[in-house]
Design brief:
alpha+beta; eight-stranded antiparallel sheet; four-stranded antiparallel sheet; 6 helices; about 25% strand
Length: about 270
């Protein structure tokens, strides 16, 4: 299951258990990230649920090898995050025929030999390579919706060949980029830019058993409870990582009965 990372632009408000991101003002400082890295063939998908007229431009999407917790969140995905290197970003256009028209890409970043993606010059509709049910790929309440309209669903994933593909309202495009490094976590990155003011995550992949287990622990136990338990070292490390998706000042209610829970060792 995906949520938005607790580190985000200063003009972003997260709600509904970090599943909804809302731009609170202006059109800058509205970047959000996935709370964890994407796995191969795992689709990160959002639906646009709010637009604000009077601005130019639309949502920007992509991936980054930067852990959001380790960087100063820039104002924009383009060009700011892109200039940090190790990122692949696209500006989505309001055309289903060619939503990547007039890509706003800056000069490739090769300094310090940082890993980088190779962009494909031509991005077209392509055959389906995912297994997500068609009902989740588009909102049937919005007929003939354009990529940047309210109700539009935009998803992207990294294939086993380390190529980036997009799925917009049920139509797949790509490959958009290749040579995506496999030795580092890849986070989804989005910018609620221009007319796009609010988005919601659509979880369309079956979560791993470990993900479900960790989510349950985080939702029911305080971090200090895990820290004080005598769990195997690697298990405790992974559990504590899960608490990184919570805000520092967020408190979790723990009942006495739940404290009796013994997490199985592996």
């Amino acid at each position: 299951m995906f949520r938005f990372h607790c580190d985000h632009g200063q003009n972003i408000n997260l709600s509904e258990n970090n599943m909804v991101a809302t731009r609170t003002q202006s059109f800058a400082n509205a970047i959000v990230f996935s709370q964890r890295p994407m796995e191969e063939d795992e689709i990160f998908m959002i639906e646009i649920i709010g637009n604000e007229q009077g601005w130019a431009g639309n949502i920007r999407c992509g991936i980054t090898l930067h852990n959001p917790a380790d960087i100063v969140i820039p104002q924009y995905l383009l060009p700011d995050l892109y200039r940090l290197g190790k990122s692949c970003v696209f500006s989505i256009k309001p055309s289903m025929e060619d939503p990547f028209r007039e890509q706003e890409l800056t000069e490739k970043n090769h300094r310090d030999n940082l890993p980088h993606c190779r962009y494909f010059e031509c991005i077209k509709k392509c055959s389906t390579t995912h297994t997500v049910h068609q009902d989740l790929l588009k909102n049937d309440n919005y007929i003939n919706v354009k990529p940047c309209d309210k109700g539009s669903r935009i998803g992207f994933f990294i294939s086993s060949k380390r190529q980036l593909f997009f799925i917009i309202n049920g139509v797949q495009y790509g490959p958009c980029a290749g040579n995506i490094p496999s030795n580092s976590g890849v986070y989804a990155a989005l910018d609620l830019y221009g007319t796009t003011s609010e988005i919601r995550i659509i979880n369309c992949s079956v979560p791993r058993l470990t993900t479900l287990g960790f989510d349950t622990v985080v939702a029911n136990y305080q971090k200090c409870f895990i820290e004080n338990e005598n769990y195997p070292k690697n298990l405790k490390k992974e559990l504590l990582k899960a608490y990184g998706t919570l805000r520092e000042n967020e408190k979790l209610e723990v009942s006495p009965s739940k404290r009796e829970f013994i997490f199985p060792s592996f």
